[in-house]
Write a structure and sequence with these properties.
The structure is a single chain. The chain is α/β, with parallel strands linked by helices. The chain has a domain of 237 residues: 3-Layer(aba) Sandwich (Aspartate Aminotransferase, domain 2). It contains 15 helices and eleven strands. Strands 1-7-6-5-4-2-3 form a seven-stranded mixed β-sheet, sandwiched between helices. Strand 2, helix 7 and strand 3 form a beta-alpha-beta unit. Helix 6 packs across helix 7. The mean pLDDT is 97. Bound molecules: pyridoxal-5'-phosphate (PLP). The site of pyridoxal-5'-phosphate has 12 residues, from helix 6.
Length: 474
Amino acid sequence: MDRDRLEFSREEMRSLGYRVVDLLVDHFADGEEEGLGASPSRANLEARLRESLPEEGNDPHAVLDQVEADVLPNTMRVDHPRFFGFVPGPNNFIGVLADALAAGFNVFSGTWISGAAAAQVELVVIDWLCELCGLPDTAGGLFTSGGSMANVTALAAARHAVLDDEVTNAVAYCSNQTHTSVDRALRLLGFGAHQLRRLPSDDRFRLDPEALRDAIALDRNDGRRPFCVIANAGTTNTGAVDPLPKVADIAEAEGLWLHVDGAYGAAAVVCERGRAALGGLDRADSLTMDPHKWLFQPFEIGGVLVRDERHLRRAFRLEAEYLADAVGAEDEANFSAYGIQLTRSFRALKLWMTLKVFGRKHVAAAVHRGFERAEQAEQFLRNRPGWAVVTSAQMGIVTFRCEPEDWTDDRVDALNRHLVSAINEEGEVFLTKTTLDGRPVLRLCPINPRTTDEDLRTTFARLDALRRDHCPSA
Ligand SMILES: Cc1ncc(COP(=O)(O)O)c(C=O)c1O
């Protein structure tokens, strides 16, 4: 190793590299036995990891030892087949290899001149996604770090296209189930919190078109400027899909931009069940779809698709003297001109390689399993005493509660909160809670295609045991 050149010999690189590959292979092959990982306290991790900045450096194998001992086991395994919390991250090995290559070759994906083939791959994959969503030939987009960045990118395009960037008195609309990244995006784009109407949703947690129409009329009447509707294609809470065709009709009639936040759910268009659930997606002016959620990619890859890609170019285009050499020919895509980042990693590679290796059909089968697992979970709940399904399985999510008869609401709420921490403490299963209509509910998101029948059986056996411990009468 030549430390001043930050350089290793071939043998050293091989030895370190093979060790990393072995770690990854063991993780993918024996992931289940590894368990769900851990989330230790800050004090615990301070004790393990706090040190002053190393002056001389260490043996790289010793550093890898520490990664193995202190870092990797002290994170949650969001790709574990019994990790059902939040939105799981069941990535795939091809995506991992692609990320290693993208990092290893340090491909610059911001300009054609520096990353021509990377840009071409991104163009191709974005076109595949646009086609799956039924967007027209004018559509385009780019990959971002995730859904939050995709939402802010899309809403910047909307602000530019509809408002010419003048936000005074402008108003956007969404349901109260919308992800907070939308609130944050609008805040960053200069809108006050009062410029986003979070409208009550219907009894299935979907945006109510009548409420939307009324709110727009009220705002127009008061001299405000409605400019955008944000609809959900799979909410984080329950997987609810807003009535996209009706919402699109209203947006069209009112001259509003329709952004669809499908960060979680839009990827399901890859399979038939998803396509059926997502009718109207093709009406979006812009759309967020995160491959690092339900398209099985390693973090980070979100995506924004825009019906007319010129809106992205117009919203983001800037010129700089130091980038004069990067301008290139008209048909050469400079993705840095379509979004926020200039320096961008080659995110498209992992999705491109995944789709090429497995094929749409098999990725679709993997997504389809998520629908089925959630339905299977719902059946488990319906066949067991003491459990109430709060929202039926939709888009791979089911929510439920333990509801012993004759208990007060407060006591039932406390029980359900406790069940989540109790099951997670056991370490066999990880799930999370959310709040619906002001009440805590348990939420299961079984979209990992490697989740088995046995995993679900274990999950419900554990839940039942806890239920019996805490409310024998239920
Ligand atoms: C519906 C929805 N929108 C946006 C986001 C934000 O995406 P990210 O976490 O990739 O920034 C999420 C994340 O779970 C989501 O579920």
